[in-house]
Amino acid sequence: xxxxxxxxxxxxxKGKEDAKRAQEFTKIAKYIMVAAKNGGSNPEFNPSxxxxxxxxxxxxxxNDNIERAIKKGAGELEGVNYEEITYEGYGVAGAAIxxxxxxxxxxxxxxxxxxxxxxxxxNLGTTGSVGYMFNMLGYIVVETSENDDxxxxxxxAIELGASDVTNDENIVEIFTDPKDLETVYSGxxxxxxxxxxxxxxxxxxxxITLSDEDLAKMERLxxxxxxxxxxxxxxxxxxNL
Length: 241
Known about the structure:
By secondary structure, this protein is of the alpha+beta class. It is 44% helix and 23% strand. The strands form two sheets. It has a four-stranded antiparallel sheet with strand order 3-1-2-8. A four-stranded antiparallel sheet has the order 5-6-4-7, with helices on one face.
């Protein structure tokens, strides 16, 4: 995974999320419900649910909300049945976009996503239209200090099963096959390292750089998608966004 730090993009995104915390609670609750429905209500035996709960705690979601979402997903409480849908399309200047959604109304979500693409100069594509440009990977970020042996951290990650490791100033970025994420994370966490992020995400094989004018348009499109209640995650291949 050559190129600039992926963590920079994730930090920028997290900053935006902090400004709309209530909406994030709703989205994380959906994520928890689907994870519990698909893999059971015990986070220790359900990696997806464990990650969802950790995300919820990271944004200070109350424990009662977390437990209620788990119970709804597991069928212990009455709740809405959400399904996962992924939309692919093109943004400004041919930029590739993937929008991962959780919805209780497929027709509504499809219409909303199409409208957002159209309104902001994009074009909603068919399944597979841009997906081939991305890979789903596990992703771990370790924050290091001057007392840490960065080479040792990188070697330890590889020995645990990481597929690639990069170092950028005080950040070590570790990439894994999604199925190996929890193994690598657990090994590094047990070693006492300062892990500030771990999740799965789509990463573009090749990124593009937009002009300032196109970048502003693309940012408005991505923001509009992320503001939609049904859209959980938005991935793109723009390096400078």
